[in-house]
Write a structure and sequence with these properties.
This protein has 322 residues and is α/β, with parallel strands linked by helices. The protein is built from ten helices and eight strands.
């Protein structure tokens, strides 16, 4: 397939990476009302909102930092050889406009935005934002057709509520998604879970509904290849969402996040697990919880941008095969 040159990123050979207006991976900015929106196959979207954060804020600034860091992405994946921008039409669709003063209104705004993306036939790749951003995306993509999910995180985000009844936080999105039949729990795999806990409520819920939780000790013992083979098998041939919390990665490699947990994967493993998604029917993906105020020298944002590129590569391969 030959992609229209309009959708080709600006090359670092033509314009220095520190120059120009930064978009995701230097792609063209094509908002939803653009004349060429229907030509876009994969849309990169910013979700600058962290209204679900319960401790250290900052992911609302994640999309800007990720856009800037993503200017370092080049045309070809150095390991897989995939050249995504030559096989599918990709564009930066801009940001979902949140309402920072109203959590419920922000959820509605995001769901409406992603419904338009779905209606346009575009597969969304989102840069968050905190993990509550995943819920309105799933409401748009999974309504009427429960999705499978492969979830990389140090937390399950399956809690019922916080602070005596707050149902919508970055620790509850996938509990709500299961309750709303947006996810098929039998096709959900959560990888990398670790850290101290308040109790076993989230793990008990996972067992009760059939979600597979792979804790970090099992991940390290079995290795990436074996774990990802299981995740692919559970997802099967059905439509699947990918959600990647940057705190999946050890804070030695990704300090810029709100709820870091030690003992996690290296930056190499962070990329390796995404390559293990090859063959999964991906209908959307996100990378969340990058918090620039806690970053050191931009290393977390750069790792996050690299993960987004890896996601784009496997998504582009899937788009070609359909």
């Amino acid at each position: 397939m030959t992609v229209d040159p309009f959708f080709t990123p600006v090359s670092g050979f033509d314009l220095a990476r520190f120059a120009g207006v930064p978009t995701f991976m230097r792609l063209p900015h094509v908002p939803l009302d653009h004349a060429r929106i229907r030509e876009v196959q994969i849309g990169l979207i910013g979700a600058p909102w962290d209204g679900g954060t319960t401790n250290r804020p900052g992911p609302r600034h994640g999309p800007r930092a990720l856009r800037d860091a993503s200017t370092m992405m080049r045309a070809q994946n150095g390991v897989t050889g995939v050249r995504p921008f030559e096989s599918v039409a990709c564009a930066d669709l801009g940001d979902v406009p949140p309402n920072p003063a109203d959590l419920m209104d922000s959820l509605k705004r995001m769901e409406s935005f992603y419904q338009k993306v779905r209606d346009a036939g575009i597969v969304p790749l989102t840069a968050g934002g905190d993990h509550l951003c995943s819920l309105p995306i799933l409401r748009a993509l999974g309504k009427g057709r429960p999705l499978g999910m492969i979830h990389f995180d140090s937390h399950t985000d399956l809690f019922h509520s916080y602070f005596g009844g707050s149902m919508y936080t970055h620790g509850t999105p996938f509990r709500r998604a299961v309750e709303e039949s947006l996810l098929d729990p039998q096709r959900v795999t959560m990888i990398g879970i670790r850290g101290t806990t308040y109790d076993d409520e989230d793990r008990d819920f996972a067992k009760a509904v059939g979600i597979r939780v792979i804790p970090i000790e099992e991940f390290h013992k079995r290795g990436t290849e074996d774990v990802m083979a299981e995740a692919r098998a559970r997802a099967g041939a059905g439509d699947t969402y990918i959600s990647y919390d940057i705190d999946f990665v050890d804070p030695a490699f990704a300090p810029g996040t709100g709820t870091p947990e030690i003992g996690g994967p290296t930056s190499w493993q962070a990329l390796e697990v995404v390559r293990g998604l090859k063959g999964v029917r991906i209908v959307g993906a996100d990378l969340v919880e990058v918090s620039p105020p806690f970053d050191l020298g931009g290393v977390t944002a750069y790792l996050g941008a690299s993960i987004l590129f890896e996601l784009l590569c496997v998504m582009s391969e899937g788009a070609i095969q359909r």
